[in-house]
Write a sequence for this structure.
């Protein structure tokens, strides 16, 4: 439904996006993820029209958006913060985009959306009287009020504290799914990208690195950057034991029957799982971010099983 | 050694202060500086003076009254002189010289102050716009023929307050009110000083203005080619409104004798000549000579019927009247 | 165990002195209640004949000036904050420099410029435009014109501060929601400007009511000129007192109105986006630049040129020994008042250092600072009455001390608010630490506290210095005779229409004013906010 072809965007003297290509299908939740400065916000801005591309095509439902002004594109956007009109109440903020609707119809729509996020009781409050999470909820339903074809979210959860972030993300995902909305979320948070979306676009240095489902990204990273960014394994460097092939990407699993011996060099506990960095002794080879429920100690010897190996050059 | 020099300094200053007078005057410094110096040279009495606005000077004298540092209060306009005396700030002075040199209508009825020079508040016309021989008077200017032709100084200046006080004293409150009302009804242009009134008349903005004679003298001296001329008003009736600059001895002054002598000197031949000359005014002493410029304005009939003491008495009424008719 | 701790003594002293500070106002009420016999005639005249006109004039002036200032300030704020107009840094300075001109200086410049024999009307007459050429400038519209040019920054700055905080993303959000620029303007931008604009308008109202010098030049009767007239011509202290009470009521009303309005400001989060909202096409850009140019011309360039031209004509005659004594008096007064305010402010701020949580502090502190909210004429009458009652005789005996005390009372707030915010940042633990090390209180004050505040103290001194140099009504009323300052001399000269002679001194004051305005804008302080 949204097709981006050979998009290149310049900001000042720098080329921020180069030959970006992807196709977003309707009703899908997409994450646009990458490190800071990789151009993801610029990509969003090009889609919505805040920025004019150097070359390339942005098409919505087959129509070239290049000459359509922002007001007419029917694309909604939710920013990271500071998004609500400070002098208008919650209700007035939501009504803003649908002010031309007939009153009854408009009121119903607003009520419906307020109920969706459980903020009906706060409808007369001003933005500064709301908490961070409440503000973002309002920002989201405000953007949804005029029934846009596409919703863009620019780091919309990034300014919230972790617990709230997680909760809100789930809530919003449910809402978007129930409304069958197509949504692109820009985030620098890998977990967020993996958990929120149907598909992930990985961006680095203005270029698309990979576009696929979360499990594809995680299990079959297309290149070194994607692999390292999602921390899901390692390319074998040098001096590797015979079972491992040089220059290849290896997917490993901790197992008692494992063939390769490693030492725990780093240990992180997150979300109920332990994530270990395991190093093959006397070697530069290191497997990062290997998940396991078992609690190993640092320096402990752990056996790993080779699951898969492939070379980026093949794919 | 230190104490000796201190003692000698104190002695010296005490001696130096032996013969001196202090004058508070609202006259501009350059108008009185030389006269004071002349007196000093002649008599050895030093004149210390402070200049300021009449109202402020009066407040200061009031404050010092129990133990005044000042001996003489010198100011312009009978209104100010009357106010000082009515507040009890001036002594009644017995002096034959003063009573003979200063006509009765130009000094306080109780001799608390004496006029020292005379100025007339006269009408001045644009010679291109007003024919010679036109009958002109303060009352005449209220008539509709003069609509759009009159320029006046602001009512806030004491000279105009005394002029209106004179009208009240001469005609009574109601008639005076209708006269001033007539001025205002003639769309009079208001200016902040007499010189600007004269300039406006010369430029043709209006045909006639009312100013003090010495302002006319000063301007005409600088720019003799201006189409301006004095046309003495009220020559067929009571005469031109005159006012004085004058002085009185401050009550409880510590140098009453010297102060009296100084006043007498100011009212006598030599001082009168200088006094009148420096500001192109008329001397109070009839026998003192006028400057040539002043003489060139010709003889005129002054209003001698109105005692200037009353100008002060009626000042408040005059302010009220001007405010009522909207004379700004 | 001490029954009365040091802290309590400190609190009670502060309260005591703050009541003392309120005495001038208290005496205004005491003396104004009953009118002395000799003043009754004057007062009846004033009350019945003068006051209705004053009310009408004041009302007219305030409304017209507010309208004029807003018409300049609101578009200017939009142009400067929301568009990509070139040379923004230049305009930032030129739109705030008009504050350097005392209103009475702007007044006589324009009265002289637009008088019948002046350049503009003469030109019109010679060109054949008789109605234009005979236009009268000395009316409410003329005064409002001058006030608008001199006071619009008080509305401009608060609006700009609010607009600065409007995130560019809000505009983007509005567009993404399908709404036009006009809709965004109407629904978000303009409503956000209303609170700062109204707050600025009340400040303009206060300045208009308090002005004495400018309305005097225009021969326009207001409360301040009537107070002065009662004081100096009618010699009716009773009338002056009662007029002061009336004006006091209006001033306090406006003051509380401003506080009330400011509280309604919706809190805005600071934003860092630098992007200009509206990128103007050529024609609107030209229009905006022209508007900026016209405002700058009339509020800044023309006045300066006129002052310089007049000064040039007059300087040979004016620059006599007399002038140097005027400058000397002005500087001496400014210096001594600056010094006394500095010392008193420091004492006050030190006394307040541990009291900020106390609920009574804001109220009693305002007693010390109320002088700034009141017109100079009122403060003069109040201080005069205070000392008349203390001394039993005319306060004029106090000489220079009277006017120094009056000016200190008037401008104490300027010193206090320059020092207080920074002093509050000093951690109270410093003093405790110093005491625990066995050092006396004075050691702490001179080695730690004062050095910390050195920069602010210098600024406080400078700001007060300039305010005193420019001040006119209070100095006029309370100074000893013969002791003229530049401002009082300008009053005397302009009341006689002597524009040229007044220009030289005025130029000096304007340059002085400009240096502080520039200093303030460099320091980032907002003059309008602290008023």
């Amino acid at each position: 439904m949204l097709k981006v072809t050979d998009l290149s965007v310049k900001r000042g003297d720098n080329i921020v996006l180069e030959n970006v290509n992807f196709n977003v299908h309707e009703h899908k939740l997409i994450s646009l993820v990458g490190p800071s400065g990789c151009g993801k916000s610029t990509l969003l801005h090009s889609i919505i029209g805040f920025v004019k591309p150097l070359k390339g095509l942005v098409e919505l439902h087959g129509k070239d958006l290049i000459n359509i002004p922002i007001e007419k594109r029917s694309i909604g956007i939710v920013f990271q913060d500071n998004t609500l009109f400070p002098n208008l109440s919650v209700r007035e903020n939501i009504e803003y985009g649908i002010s031309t609707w007939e009153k009854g119809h408009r009121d119903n729509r607003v009520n419906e959306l307020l109920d969706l996020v459980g903020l009906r009781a706060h409808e007369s409050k001003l933005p500064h009287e709301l908490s961070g999470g409440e503000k973002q909820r309002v920002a989201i339903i405000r953007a949804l009020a005029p029934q846009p074809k596409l919703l863009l979210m620019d780091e919309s959860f990034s300014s919230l504290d972790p617990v709230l972030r997680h909760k809100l993300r789930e809530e919003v995902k449910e809402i978007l799914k129930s409304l069958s909305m197509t949504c692109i979320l820009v985030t620098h948070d890998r977990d967020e990208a993996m958990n929120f979306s149907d598909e992930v676009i990985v961006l680095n240095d203005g270029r698309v690195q990979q576009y696929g489902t979360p499990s594809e990204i995680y299990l079959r990273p297309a290149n070194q950057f994607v692999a390292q960014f999602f921390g899901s394994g390692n390319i074998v460097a040098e001096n590797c034991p015979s079972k491992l092939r040089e220059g290849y990407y290896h997917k490993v699993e901790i197992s008692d029957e494992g063939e390769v011996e490693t030492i725990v060099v780093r240990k992180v506990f997150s979300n109920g799982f332990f994530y270990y960095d395991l190093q093959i002794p006397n070697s530069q080879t290191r497997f990062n971010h290997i998940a396991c429920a078992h609690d190993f100690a640092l320096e402990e010897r752990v056996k790993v099983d080779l699951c898969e190996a492939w070379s980026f050059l093949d794919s | 050694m230190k104490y000796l020099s201190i003692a000698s300094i104190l002695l010296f200053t005490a001696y130096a202060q032996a013969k001196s007078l202090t004058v508070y005057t609202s006259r501009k410094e350059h108008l009185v500086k030389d006269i004071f110096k002349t007196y000093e040279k002649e008599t050895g009495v030093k004149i210390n003076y402070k200049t300021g606005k009449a109202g402020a000077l009066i407040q200061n004298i009031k404050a010092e009254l129990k133990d005044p540092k000042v001996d003489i209060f010198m100011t312009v306009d009978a209104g100010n002189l009357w106010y000082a005396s009515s507040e009890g700030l001036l002594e009644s002075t017995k002096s034959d010289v003063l009573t003979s040199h200063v006509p009765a209508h130009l000094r306080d009825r109780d001799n608390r102050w004496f006029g020292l020079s005379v100025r007339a508040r006269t009408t001045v016309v644009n010679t291109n716009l007003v024919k010679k021989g036109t009958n002109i008077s303060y009352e005449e200017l209220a008539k509709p023929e003069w609509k759009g032709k009159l320029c006046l100084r602001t009512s806030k200046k004491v000279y105009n307050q005394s002029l209106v006080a004179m009208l009240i004293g001469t005609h009574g409150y109601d008639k005076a009110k209708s006269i001033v009302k007539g001025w205002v009804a003639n769309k009079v242009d208001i200016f902040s000083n007499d010189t600007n009134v004269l300039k406006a008349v010369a430029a043709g903005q209006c045909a006639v203005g009312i100013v003090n004679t010495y302002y006319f003298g000063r301007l005409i001296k600088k720019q003799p080619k201006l189409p301006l001329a004095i046309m003495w008003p009220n020559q067929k009736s009571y005469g031109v409104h005159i006012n004085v600059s004058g002085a009185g001895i401050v009550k409880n002054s510590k140098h009453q004798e010297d102060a009296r002598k100084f006043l007498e000197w100011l009212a006598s031949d030599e001082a009168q000549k200088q006094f009148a000359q420096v500001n192109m005014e008329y001397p109070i002493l009839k026998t003192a000579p006028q400057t040539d410029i002043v003489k060139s304005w010709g003889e005129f009939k002054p209003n001698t019927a109105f005692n200037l003491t009353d100008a002060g008495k009626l000042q408040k009424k005059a302010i009220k009247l001007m405010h009522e008719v909207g004379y700004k | 165990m001490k029954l009365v701790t040091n802290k309590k003594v400190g609190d009670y002293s502060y309260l005591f002195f703050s009541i003392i500070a309120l005495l001038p106002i208290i005496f205004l009420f005491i003396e104004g209640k009953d009118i002395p016999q000799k003043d009754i005639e004057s007062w009846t005249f004033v009350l019945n004949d003068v006051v209705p006109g004053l009310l009408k004039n004041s009302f007219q002036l305030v409304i017209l000036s507010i309208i004029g200032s807003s018409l300049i300030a609101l578009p200017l704020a939009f142009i400067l904050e929301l568009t990509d107009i070139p040379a923004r840094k230049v305009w930032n300075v030129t739109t705030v420099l008009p504050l350097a001109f005392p209103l009475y200086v702007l007044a006589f410049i324009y009265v002289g410029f637009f008088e019948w024999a002046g350049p503009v009307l003469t030109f019109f007459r010679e060109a054949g435009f008789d109605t234009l050429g005979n236009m009268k400038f000395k009316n409410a519209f003329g005064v409002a014109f001058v006030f608008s040019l001199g006071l619009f920054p008080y509305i401009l700055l608060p609006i700009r501060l609010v607009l600065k905080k409007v995130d560019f993303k809000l505009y983007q959000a509005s567009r993404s929601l399908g709404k036009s620029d006009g809709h965004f303007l109407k629904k978000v931008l303009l409503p956000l400007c209303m609170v700062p604009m109204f707050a600025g308008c009340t400040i303009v109202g206060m300045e208009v009511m308090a002005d004495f010098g400018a309305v005097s030049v225009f021969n326009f009767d207001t409360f301040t000129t009537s107070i002065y007239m009662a004081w100096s011509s009618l010699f009716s202290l009773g009338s002056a007192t009662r007029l002061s009470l009336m004006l006091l009521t209006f001033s306090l009303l406006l003051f509380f109105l401003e506080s009330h309005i400011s509280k309604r400001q919706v809190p805005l989060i600071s934003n860092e986006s630098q992007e200009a909202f509206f990128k103007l096409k050529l024609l609107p850009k030209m229009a905006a630049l022209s508007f900026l140019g016209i405002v700058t011309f009339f509020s800044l360039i023309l006045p300066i040129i006129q002052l310089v031209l007049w000064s040039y004509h007059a300087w040979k005659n004016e620059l006599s020994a007399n002038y140097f004594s005027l400058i000397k008096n002005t500087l001496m007064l400014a210096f001594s008042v600056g010094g006394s305010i500095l010392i008193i402010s420091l004492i006050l701020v030190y006394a307040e250092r541990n009291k900020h949580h106390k609920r009574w502090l804001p109220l009693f502190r305002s007693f010390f600072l109320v002088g700034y909210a009141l017109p100079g004429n009122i403060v003069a009458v109040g201080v005069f009455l205070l000392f008349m009652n203390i001394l039993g005789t005319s306060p004029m005996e106090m000489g220079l001390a009277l006017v120094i005390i009056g000016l200190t009372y008037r401008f104490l707030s300027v010193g206090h608010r320059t020092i207080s915010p920074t002093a509050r940042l000093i951690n109270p633990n410093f003093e405790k630490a110093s005491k625990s090390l066995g050092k006396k209180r004075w050691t702490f004050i001179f080695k730690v506290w004062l050095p910390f505040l050195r920069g602010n103290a210098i600024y406080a001194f400078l700001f007060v210095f300039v305010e005193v140099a420019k001040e006119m009504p209070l100095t006029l009323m309370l100074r000893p005779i013969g002791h003229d300052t530049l401002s009082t001399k300008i009053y005397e000269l302009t009341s006689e229409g002597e524009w040229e002679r007044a220009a030289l001194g005025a130029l000096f004051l304007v340059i002085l004013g400009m240096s502080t305005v520039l200093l303030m804008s460099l320091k980032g302080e907002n003059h309008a906010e602290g008023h």
Notes: Chains A and B do not touch (no CB pair under 8 Å). Residues 132 and 176 of chain A are 20 Å apart (CA to CA). The radius of gyration of chain A is 23 Å.
